[in-house]
Each structure stands twice: as structure tokens, then as C-alpha cells.
Amino acid sequence: MPSTILSKPPAPPRPAPVLPPAASTPITREWVRWVAEQVMRGCTPVSMLEVMVNAGIDDVVASVIIEGMVSNPICVAGEQQVQLLRKLESSMANLQQLWELNPDYQTIEKRADVSVAEFASRYVEGCRPLVLTGHTADWPAMRRWSPQDLKQRFGHLDIEIQAERHANPRYEQDKLSHRRHVRVADFVDQVVSGGASNDYYLTANNEALRQPGFAPLLDDIGTLPPGCDRSQLSARSSFWFGPAGTVTSLHHDKLMLFHTQVVGRKRWRLISPLQTPRLYNTNAVFSPIDLDAPDYDRYPLLRGVKILEVVIEPGETIYLPLGWWHQVRALDVSLSFSYSNIGLPNNNVFDYFDPVVRQV
């Protein structure tokens, strides 16, 4: 992966009320930080100088800042750590190339039946996504669940949803500030009559299935995928409901899970965890990239990343392997059921270091 791509320079500072005619752009903390970042990334002094001069900084001043940063012992130590990071990134990129040698790499298999042994070896240990198509035939949910059924059976109960998401592109990261409690009947009416929207959504964070009033939903779940521990179903499952147009933004989970589509369709876009260095992951498990409208100028490392895509139909279940990035869009009014009760090491086993890059 290239290490000499200059990152975006800081925004110009607000001008002072009065500036002498010959004044140049002042050196701010943001510019000093930018120079330090470029030095650690391995960018050349010439390339940095060009950017700074084009931004209006005096060339002599810029040269002094750059030369001082190149010899700064803190930056030297940072460069050494970046070199170690580059080795890790190159190892991941090489493994990704091996995965992509498989001509079927970008095809997500749809299979009606998989044994426990094959599921464990081929998909869990092999870290491959899979769509199961056969195990929900005996689910009462497939015959019963609908918005109107939800309203009839649970309309009097309160539920936690996410609301007012349109106004905040970070609605997933800031999900706590978007929590609202509404009556199920009112929310069903809003979803049915409101048309396509990403402004409101009953997501996995609602914890509905831990409430006694929603326990009948669990009675509607029949045969589980291979290797699932049914005794853990109520504690490790979630219910989803929303209109067409809801989007779960690009992120990865910290465990493996199944997601069964009961009503409506969802389009899943997935990216290998080995591609993480190219997804600008600077905030916990989230990427700022929108796969529906990728901005390659802002995120140039995204170019060439292989994106897998599959539409999950009613009755189908997607298996999400460990660490796979995914962005999900509902194509219809959607009722879904997700669960992580896989009878293998899963919950509270895998350890991720989540970056939170401090903005100065």
C-alpha cells in the first residue's frame, strides 16, 4: 500500500479583520500537525513544501517547519512505529491477494443445507460469508410476521427506536442521542405510511427481546442454522423493523452472527477484514465511507477494494464471519431477526483495539 500519499491539508484559518497586504497564510497548530503526519507517512519534503506554498505559506517559513519536523526525535520515533504498521498492512494485503485468486471470491454462496462440521471448517474457520436458504421453512414467523401482526400483538407496548437520523450523518456513532421511545402501534403506522426513509429505524439496540412482553416473537423462531445453541437464543438475538431505505452504515462487528430476513429484502455489501487499512477506520468499528456513493477523491485507498454484494430474500439467512465490514440497505419494508448464539467461541472472546483518533 502506498505510504507517500499526501493527506488532505487543513482548512484555511479564518482571516483576521485586517491583514497587511504582503502577509502570508499563518502557521497554525493544524498545519504543524499536518506536517508531522506527512513526515511519519513517509512523504517527501518537496511534496509537503509544494502543498504549503500553494496554500499561501511563505516558502522559507514552510521549509523551516518541515526541516525541524524531519529531525524531531518524536517524529523519528513515530516513523519507526509507522514502519511496523506498514509491515502488518502489507501482510494483510498479501493474504487478501491470495483470497482473491479464487475465481469465486466475489460470489457469496447460497446453500440450502450445510452440516455443522462443514460450516465450522469452511465458513467459520475459513472466514467466508454464506447465505442459507433452507432452514426457515418451519418458522412460524415466515407465515405470521407482518407490520399489521406486529401492531395487533404488540401495539400497546413501548419500544426504543432510532429517530431523526437524516440530520446527522454519524447517526450510528451517535446512536445514543437518537434514542426515542414510542408505542409499537404508532411506529408501525409511521413505517407503513411514510414511504422509503432512513430517518427512523427499530434496530438491534432496542433490546426488545429481553422484555417479557415481546417474548412471543421468540416462539416464532423455528430451526436454527448449523451449530447454534438454542438455549442462548433469547439472550443473544435482536429484532429489526423499518421502512425501505434504512441504511446501516459501513462498520464491522466484534463477533460472528446470523441475520435472517423474514419480511422484505435487504442488500448487503461486504468487505474483507484484510482490507481494513484501506477503509479509513479512525473511529471504533466505523468507516466514514458510504458504499452507495463512494468518494474516491476523499478516500483514494478505497480504489481497488473488492466489494461483495448480495440481496437477502425473505426466508434467507446471511452468516457474517468475524470482522467483515458491511453496509446494509433495506429495499422494502423489512422485518429481520439477528442472532449470535453460535455454539463456538464468539461473544466476549475476540479482542479488538478500536482506534479513536483525537481531532485537535
UniProtKB/TrEMBL annotation:
It comes from Variovorax robiniae. It comes from the Bacteria. InterPro entries: Cupin_8, JmjC_dom. SUPFAM superfamilies: Clavaminate synthase-like. PANTHER family: HYPOXIA-INDUCIBLE FACTOR 1 ALPHA INHIBITOR-RELATED, HYPOXIA-INDUCIBLE FACTOR 1-ALPHA INHIBITOR. This is Cupin-like domain-containing protein. Residues 1-22 are annotated as: Disordered. Residues 9-20 have a biased composition (Pro residues).
